[in-house]
Amino acid sequence: MSDRYCVFGNPIGHSKSPAIHAAFAAQCRQDLSYEAILAAPDGFADAVRAFIAAGGRGANVTVPFKEQAWRLATRLSPRAELAGAVNTLVFDHSGMFGDNTDGAGLLRDLTVNLGCRIAGQRVLLLGAGGAARGVLGPLLDSRPGVMVIANRRVARAGDLAQGFAGAASLRACGYPELAGQSFDLVINATSASLVGELPPLPAGLFAPASLAYDLMYGECETLFLAFARNQGAARLADGLGMLVEQAAEAFHLWRGLRPDSAPVIAMLRATAVSAR
Ligand code: NDP
């Protein structure tokens, strides 16, 4: 029987993860199956246990279960520990290992696929939810010159920054305090784009040659990317590359092999264009 993997979420019908992992498995000649499982809002832990009992070897975890997965895991990687959220689980004889590959996925998309330099740059991270928690550590490891987290509920941004209190370049604030500042890289890790909203961003945020990156991906340009375009950002990117890269990192954890993400990103982009 093929080794079984899955992604847990709610909702989950829209997930691209089964297509991504099927492509990785074919590329790396791995005999595995990967399915999307809808877990009830209060049924995540039961769904995980049932999947393990049925022979599951590992799982991805998406909204809204990443923090529950963090609590459920019997061991955590240092980056998952720091993020307070788990997006990848490995099941073996010793229990349930939890990791967070979101930050590594974003960093690889930024630096390898988009050729973006982070060291010494002025970086703005919008949002302080699960995704922001996952990406902040790896961003700081890349040594930005200035790293600002802005969030609607300012206290949440402050709490997030506190977890990285050793980082001299790091500051937390609300949106009004961004007025008069400009950045080389602006990353939207809020869920505002999901509901067709835009965080209350002041004009002038985008430095010449800046990159605007929205973690959200979809068939249409998000309001954030449209705003960035109008404000003169030099380059725009959505989160599809991050999605594939975080999946590649999870695949590596499960199978010990690193798939080539470029053809899979190209395949998903082509599918999105033909669906329009
Ligand atoms: P959470 O629910 O944990 O956090 C939501 C964040 O968005 C909070 O900081 C919240 O602010 C902020 N927010 C929500 N609505 C608005 C608004 N209208 N204006 C300003 N701020 C707002 O979500 P996640 O962190 O899990 O996900 C964030 C986004 O990242 C989603 O779009 C998700 O799809 C995407 N994502 C993409 C990935 C990829 O691989 N490409 C991977 C992971 C996530 P407040 O705290 O003030 O409420």
Give an overview of the whole structure.
- With 276 residues, the chain is of the alpha/beta class.
- The chain folds into two domains: 3-100 and 244-275, 3-Layer(aba) Sandwich (Rossmann fold), CATH 3.40.50; 103-238, Rossmann fold.
- 38% of the residues lie in helices and 23% in strands.
- It is built from ten helices and twelve strands.
- It has helices at 17-28, 44-53, 66-72, 78-83, 102-113, 130-141, 154-162, 223-230, 240-255, 262-275; strands at residues 3-9, 32-38, 56-61, 75-76, 88-92, 95-99, 122-126, 146-150, 170-173, 183-188, 206-214, 235-237.
- The strands form two sheets. Strands 2-1-3-5-6-4 form a six-stranded mixed β-sheet, with helices on both faces. A six-stranded parallel β-sheet has the order 9-8-7-10-11-12, with helices on both faces.
- Helix 1 (17-28) links the parallel strand 1 and strand 2 (32-38).
- Helix 1 (17-28) packs across helix 9 (240-255) and helix 5 crosses helix 6.
- It binds NADPH dihydro-nicotinamide-adenine-dinucleotide phosphate.
- NADPH dihydro-nicotinamide-adenine-dinucleotide phosphate (NDP) is lined by residues 63, 102, 105, 127-132, 151-153, 156, 189-194, 197, 199, 215-217, 239, 242-243, 246.
- It comes from Candidatus Accumulibacter affinis.
- Pathway: Metabolic intermediate biosynthesis; chorismate biosynthesis; chorismate from D-erythrose 4-phosphate and phosphoenolpyruvate: step 4/7.
- One of its GO terms (cellular component) is cytosol.
- Involved in the biosynthesis of the chorismate, which leads to the biosynthesis of aromatic amino acids. Catalyzes the reversible NADPH linked reduction of 3-dehydroshikimate (DHSA) to yield shikimate (SA).
- Its EC number is 1.1.1.25.
